[in-house]
Design brief:
- The chain has 422 residues and is an alpha+beta fold.
- Helices cover 50% and strands 10% of the residues.
- The protein contains 17 helices and 6 strands.
- The chain has a 6-stranded mixed β-sheet with strand order 2-1-5-4-3-6.
- A hairpin with a 4-residue loop joins strand 1 (297-302) and strand 2 (307-311).
- Helix 2 (22-29) crosses helix 3 and helix 11 crosses helix 13 (236-255).
- The longest helix is centred in the first third of the chain and has 30 residues, at 102-131.
Length: 422
């Protein structure tokens, strides 16, 4: 239903809000009450001078009567309706609802946006609580201290008499364990009480590298020029990872300069596989070079499925900890080495977004190693993520099972905290 077809409903709601009788409004506009009644029930379209007269009589702008709810509000209502069962709201009448009850419609849209935001926050917190290595280490240390204190206390509280020197030793152990427990608890509280405005601290060398690259938006002009990496990347272990990343980056930048990449993509009409053929370079190299451009996402994993490189793109969430969605083509590529894959995927949930992804898995020759007969290959999979137009045939994927709302997913490892059944 078009916005103009609801002009009558908006006229009626405005008249009732002002407490104006239908006959009085009809007289002010110079029409009969019966004709105004047909207009208010959307049985007669109006425009021109009559619309201007009615707007003047109702002390409002003509556009507010003719244009109705904005597109953003209707889009939000449509997204909210998508979350409901098939027998839920009357989706075809969303614009009529927005036109007749704009306040309630705005409330529904605001609540939908709030629920979506809370779900994203729950996803992040669940991912953190379940897989954060700092939390795991802190809880392990606290449990270890509690167990030691309990064991020592049970000995001291026992019926057997303890020699003074052993008693003093147990008291010393009890004090040391209590101090260790207090320190661990304080570190955990400080970590959890960090202001929301602060970035979550990196707790592993890989996270330090991820944070460094994200802070620079994966834009590393010194490596493009074949120079050394700019600055120290966190801890010595993180810097060692960064140097290994930089070695590969420099080699690939020399093999596929930005200008050559742009020309090849233009000749290939944006197809990465065709561009790789134009450049005469491996497909995974071209995927990584494209992944360094603005607006692209890039993910890599090793043979265990552990993510070793994360460049997020808006709308495609990447887990900070733990396992990702097993339906990602990134992991399918591990089962089909050397085979280039492409697929259109859509993210599950209310904030649906569609992407064209490309993936391939290839063996990695580690520095200092040599090929040998019978040697098992060390695999690495690369996946490029590019925004795409929404398509009905897109395959739904999530971030991880724990926060994925999909029902009856054959690849689910554990129940989702967003499931209606929980």
């Amino acid at each position: 239903m078009s916005g103009s077809s609801l002009t009558g409903s908006r006229i009626r709601e405005r008249r009732l809000a002002l407490g104006v009788r239908q006959a009085a409004l009809a007289k002010a506009a110079g029409i009969s009450s019966s004709y105004l009644n047909l207009i208010e029930h959307n049985r007669r379209r109006i425009g021109g001078k009559l619309l201007l007269d009615l707007a003047a009589a109702l002390d409002t702008e003509p556009a507010l009567l003719s244009e109705g709810a904005e597109f953003a509000l209707l889009t939000a209502l449509g997204e909210a309706a998508e979350r409901a069962p098939d027998d839920g709201p009357e989706r075809a009448r969303a614009e009529e609802f927005a036109g007749r009850f704009p306040g309630w419609a705005a409330l529904v849209a605001d609540q939908h946006a709030r629920i979506s935001g809370l779900e994203q926050q729950v996803s992040a917190l669940s991912d953190r609580l379940t897989h954060d290595p700092f939390l795991s280490a802190s809880l392990h240390e606290m449990l270890s201290s509690v167990t030691s204190i309990r064991s020592t206390a049970s000995i001291l509280a026992g019926d057997e008499e303890i020699e003074p020197q052993w008693q003093a030793r147990f008291h010393g152990n009890l004090r040391e364990d209590a101090v260790r427990l207090t320190d661990a608890a304080q570190r955990l509280v400080d970590y959890l009480d960090a202001p929301d405005t602060e970035a979550e601290p990196a707790t592993t060398p890989q996270e330090e590298l991820d944070a460094y690259l994200a802070a620079r938006n994966f834009h590393l002009p010194e490596l493009e020029a074949g120079e050394a990496l700019d600055g120290q990347v966190g801890s010595p272990a993180a810097h060692a990872l960064a140097e290994r990343f930089a070695d590969r980056y420099r080699a690939e930048a020399a093999a596929v300069p930005v200008a050559a990449l742009e020309e090849a993509l233009a000749a290939a009409q944006g197809d990465p596989l065709a561009a790789a053929q134009v450049l005469g370079q491996p497909f995974d190299v071209v995927l990584r070079r494209i992944g360094m451009r603005a607006g692209a996402g890039l993910v890599e994993c090793d043979g265990s499925g552990t993510l070793t490189l994360r460049r997020a793109v808006e709308g495609f969430a990447l887990p900070r900890f733990g396992a990702a969605c097993p339906l990602w083509p990134l992991f399918t590529a591990l089962t089909r080495p050397h085979v280039p894959l492409t697929q259109v995927v859509a993210t599950a949930g209310a904030q649906r977004a569609t992407f064209r992804v490309y993936a391939i898995a290839v063996p990695v020759i580690m520095p200092g190693s040599a090929m040998a007969f019978g040697a098992d290959p060390v695999m690495r999979a690369t996946m490029l993520i590019l925004p795409a137009q929404d398509e009905a045939a897109a395959s739904e994927v999530g971030m991880s099972c724990r926060v994925c709302p999909r029902d009856n997913c054959p690849a689910r490892r554990e129940p989702s905290i967003l499931s209606d059944a929980l």
